Amino acid sequence: MKKIEAIIKPFKLDAVKEALEKAEIFGMTVTEVKGFGKQKGHTELYRGAEYQIGFVPKIKLEIITIAEKVPAIVDIIRTTAASGKIGDGKIFVTPVEDVIRIRTGETGPDAI
């Protein structure tokens, strides 16, 4: 089993969710986060004054899946979330030791 974490631009969330659902990928956690990478935030103009925005709003998706589905899910997120501009985000794939469904006690892939 693997955990896919994707940091994407907020306005791309609906498109990514729809593309995953179309591919019959269900079950994800979505969190509003803030951060910065190489872009180090950005400058905005408000009432004629410039000010620095250090943390940029982003969306973090978390999906637990079987290893065989990872390439397809990563490809869907990568192609759907891409705008070709700086700050499109990152995708992280990490191993998951176990999953336990609280309600039934199922473990492993059956619990996903």
What is the chains' assembly state?
single chain
Helix content percent band: 10-25%
Tally of distinct domains: 1
Q: Rg from C-alpha positions?
A: 17 Å
| Poorly predicted runs | none
What is the count of β-strands?
A: 6
Chain-averaged pLDDT: 91
- Relative strand content: 35-45%
Summarize the helix and strand pattern as letters.
Answer: EHEEEEHE
CATH topology: Alpha-Beta Plaits
User: Shape from CA axes?
Assistant: elongated
Work out the helix count: 2
Describe the structure.
This protein is α+β, with helices and mostly antiparallel strands. The protein has one domain: Alpha-Beta Plaits (2-Layer Sandwich). The strands form 2 sheets. A 4-stranded antiparallel sheet has the order 2-5-1-6, with helices on one face. Helix 1 runs antiparallel to helix 2. The chain starts with a strand and ends in a 17-residue tail after the last strand.
Which labels suit this protein?
4-stranded antiparallel β-sheet; Alpha-Beta Plaits; alpha+beta; 20% helix; 112 residues
Q: How would you summarize this macromolecular structure in one to three sentences?
A:
It is built from two helices and six strands.
Please write out the topology:
Layout: E1 2-8, H1 13-22, E2 29-35, E3 42-46, E4 49-53, E5 56-65, H2 70-81, E6 89-95
Helix pairs in contact: 1-2
